[in-house]
Amino acid sequence: MKIIQKNITLNEITSMALSIFGNFVKAVVDIEREIIALDAELHSDLEALLLENGSKQKNIWGINIYPDMQGADFIEFDSMINLRPSQGNRSRNVENKEIQKKIIAIVAKRIIA
User: Fold this and answer.
1) Domain carrying residue 26
2) What is the pTM of this model?
């Protein structure tokens, strides 16, 4: 598991994907601190890592990154940690479009080609 506070290359993401799932890597994004935790079998492990390192629950969201895909298929907004009825998110998906936009911007900023 790794917290990305600066940048990571797409090649590094691809290597992480190959080591566990093959075609994707699980990630958790802190939309307030603009950091990403990567490379675990479970989003909940990445969530715990960020919480231990100062993130707040309300700001972290689980996604999957598909390094071989482009456009809308690059990020999948699906994780059990996203189930948050208290925040109005009643499914595994990130339902709030503004939060999705923040996640996309952070991923684009942190993952370089």
Assistant:
1) 2-112
2) 0.96
> Which pair of tokens denotes residue 22?
């093959």
Kindly report the number of other CB atoms within 10 A of residue 62's CB atom: 26
| Cα–Cα distance measured from residue 54 to residue 10, given in angstroms and rounded to the nearest whole number | 26
> CB burial class (10 A; 0-12, 13-18, 19+) of residue 14?
middle
Count of the separate structural domains present in the chain: 1
- pLDDT per residue as tens digits for the range 47-63: 999 999 999 999 999 99
List of residues 6+ apart from 84 with CB closer than 8 A: none
Distances (CA, A) of 19 to 12, 74, 82, 87: 11, 18, 25, 34
**Encoding tokens for residue 24?**
């994707």
